[in-house]
Each structure stands twice: as C-alpha cells, then as structure tokens.
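Practice set, problem 2.
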Amino acid sequence: MSALLIGLLGALLAGDAPSSAANAAAVSAIPVINTNDPVEKEYYQIMLDDDAAEKEVLGWMNSADSLANAGGGRSQLTLNLRIQQRLDAIKKEYQDFVDRHPKHVNARLAFGSFLNDNNEQEAAFKQWDEARQLDPANPAAWDNLGNYYGENAQASNAFRCYDKALALNTNQPVYYHNLAATLYLFRDDAQRYYHLDGEQVFDKSLGLYRQAIKMDPANFILYSDYAECFYGAKPPRWQEGLQAWSEALKVARNEVEREGVYLHLARINLHVGDYDGARKNLDVVTNANYAKLKSGLEKNLAAAAGNTSAPPK
C-alpha cells in the first residue's frame, strides 16, 4: 500500500474528513510479473489485493465525504471500523505469507511499507530490518530504514542508511530526495556527522535535491520540497526561492497545486519589495482552502505598500 493512506487514515482517526483533492490522488500501478513460480504468483496476488484494498478504502472515504458535504451525515466510527477490517484482512495475508516464506525479501519490504502506512512503525521497522539482514545489498531496505530513523529523530542512523542505499543504487531519485530532506531537517546533526559547517550542509542538501530533480523532472512534490528549503537559509535566499517556485509552477499537476505556488511566489514578492508581483500572484488565488493564507498576505501587502520603510512580516 502506498504512503498516500498515512494522512488519510490519520485524518479519519482524528475525526476529520480528508479533502476531496487528497482522496483523488492517483494510486501507483503494480508492475506485471511473468513467472511460473507459485511462490512469486502468491506474492504478486497479495500485492494486487493490497492495491485493491487501497482503492476501495479511498472510494469509501470519497463517498463518505460527498455524503457529509451534501448534509447526509455519517458515522465516523462505522467508517473507521470498516476500513480497519479491510486492512486487517490484507495484513493477515502478508503475515501468513512471510510466516511460510520468511526469507522472501520483497515480501518483507512490502509488508513493512503496508504496516508503516497504517501507523505500525515499529512492526514495519522489524520487517525492513529483517529484509536488510537477508539481503544487505538491497538498497530499498536501507532506504526504508533511513525513513524510519528520520521519522524518529535518529538522524545519524538515517544518514548512514541513506548513504548506504545510494552507494548500492545511484539511479533512484527518491534516495537523493530522502537524504536531501533529512539533511535539511537535521542540519545540526548533519554538521557533526559529515564534519561540515552549516552552509556546507545546506548546499549538500540542495545538491541532492537538484540531482533528484534532474532524474525526476516532473515530480511536483520534489520541486516543492526543494523550493521550501530556501526559506531556511540564513539569511533566506529569496531570489533563489523565487526561481525554484517558478520552476515548481511549471510542473504543478492541478489548480490546487498551482494556486499554492502562487501564494509562495506572492510571499517572496513581498519580501523583495515587488508589490505589483505580489498583487498579481494573489489575484489568481481563488480556492477557498487558501482564503486565510491569502488574506494574511493581502494584509501584509497593504501594510508594506503603505509604509515602504517597514519590511513585510
């Protein structure tokens, strides 16, 4: 199951409906296999079942969301229970398979991802670590372990695992992306681990992002993560950020993403004193979900334009 359900299930358990835009996100396809091996066929069937369950759960969420928006109401508890029962069935398939085929590395990797997507991080870690022990040359196992350590603020272990994944496979943009993001988030730890100063760590992160973008030039999330880094520079690199968000705009997949980028562009326009540019970018933002952010930027723009001696907030 993809990481898509992490936020969606979290929102359900918190009692809030996920947005329809999130529910409509695409589910990645499973590659077709060509084998007569009964074990591999069984594993492949579990992957298909996992994928089908994800699509089914997303459908339930969309239906519940539509009904609630129409004033029909819904039982959050009933929906959560229905989802949990559906996912428990897939979990049992995975568990039964790895119990019978404990040395199947790909199954352990997939099972770990399924568990992680359903907020069972410790159980996921055990599956990924078992996969690493079974096949130390498998870069996906190291990358997944890096994700676990990063999410649990164990930065040094995350760096070590991501470096190992990249040493084993330099052709996966997600490995560069993951290490870049972790370096950015844990810059102090990175300084100690890599024996670099703050600026060098920042530039190392940007370099990894650029390599990932070069390999995956249509990935909007990747571009967005890269562009946001420039806010964290000391001082912020406004012009480089403006260029990065402009590039992100070119690969935005829908109007929601495009309008989000326009807000970022307007924010930077404000900071560099381009008030006409800020107004132009804010004018094209119409999505109600951005109303509060847009209003705040408009107030800052009015204040800055009325008193050019005061920097915008």
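Problem 2, part (b): a different protein.
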Amino acid sequence: MGLRISTNVASVAAQRQLGRSQARFSHASRALASGTRLVDPGDDAAGFAISENLRGQGESLKAAQRNAESAVGLIQVAEGGLSEQNNILVRLRELAVQAASDTVGDEERRFIDIEFQQLGKEFDRIAETTRYGNKMLLTGGNEEYEFQLGSGGSENDVIRYKMEADTRAATLGITGLSVEDQDGARSLLTELDDALMKVAGARASFGAMQSRLNIASTNLDVQHENVVSARSRIADADIAYESAELASAQIQQQLGISVLAQANAAPASVMKLL
C-alpha cells in the first residue's frame, strides 16, 4: 500500500471506532445515572412501550389504593359515631332499669331523668354532626357511594355502597322518653332494646363494608407490587452490566484516542522521503 496524504484512511477508521466507544460510554453513563436501561426509546422500542404502560398501571393502582384507604376512613368515621350512640343507649337502658326499681324514690328519679334527657340530646347531636367532609353519614340520606378501587374503567373496578344508616332519635323511636315515672321507665326498656338492635344492624353493615375494603386494599398492594416488579425486569438497568460497559467503553475510548493520534501522525512520515 502506497503512502497517501490526501485521504487518511487509518484516521477515518480510528474516528469511527472512537465514536462508537464514546456512544457506549455515554449510554452506560446515562443508564447508571438514571437507573434504567431504556435511556432512549430506540434502545428497545417494544420494551419501552410495555414499561411505560406498566408504569401508568402502577401509578393508577397506587391511586386506587389511596381511594380504598379513604373509603375505609369514611366507614370508620361513621362507625365511630355509631359506637358512641351505642354507648349512650346502653347507659339509657341502665338508667331506665335503675329508675324502674323501688330502691329509688320519686326525687331520685327526677335526678336520674336529668341525665337521661341530656344523653338523649347528645344521641341526636351525634347523628346530626357525624360527617366525612360534607357527607352526612348517620341521617339516612340513602346516598350510594362509588369507590374506584381498580386501575380500569369497568364495573369490576368500582365498589358501590349505599349508606342507609339513620340513627336519629326520631327514626329509632326514642324521642320524648322519660324515666321520671317508675312504670314508664320499665315500659321503655323494649324501645331501647329495639334501638340497640337497629344501631347494631347499622354497625354490622359498616363493619362488613370495612372488611371488604380492607381485603380490596390488600389485593391492590399485591397487584402494585407485581406490576412494579414486572416493569423493573423490563426497564431497570443491570448495574453490574452497565458498570462493565462503562469501564470497557472508557478503555476503548482511551485506546481510540491513542490510535487516532498515531493515525494522524502517519502522513508526516512522508516528509522523510523528501
């Protein structure tokens, strides 16, 4: 092969190889910095599309899980009000039994009735003030709640719950009660028992829904974990591999620079022939 100075083929070849090693170095650096092997969609077009779809599904599952937790919070607020109303009914029954006995006189019954009336007012106040945001929970609005607990738009992604709890005193039939009279105190025990059963029924309904929501939340946890794991296998960078790529590309880059320097210096040897 003769000596030529118009076209330095060796230099062109060295530049091409140097460009390739620089590209490898850049890709490995970006992969290590970002933690993903798909630094450009062109690295794996199909994998990139799948991983982005899984990322969207994973974020949606997280939002659905937050919805489930909020729904459980709503149920717990309502159940908390019912719990206190249940305690009040138990105390009212206790006072009625006490007032129905001849061991207390008429004056003592009037004192007992003072507490009885105050507890009755508090019972109604709890029903009227138990709310979640602007949603009244214990006044019998019969509102149907829709909880979005899935990442899709199908019916299976929604849990519906109709709030039918109405625990106001008038609804339970315990308004206007008094224990000032012995016979009256004894007769209202049945009404208090009926009210207790209605409150217990409402609490059972809330408890059943809370149990379902807890299971749904756990299922969303599992789904989110699996989706994140699937995306990780597609998109996450293999740190060991990328580190080796970085070291290899760095060595090749340094060698390429040295070879390019030698290739650029080769035409100067022509001067020795002159």
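Answer key, part (b): The first strand starts at residue 131 and ends at 132. The CA atoms of residues 67 and 149 lie 6 Å apart.
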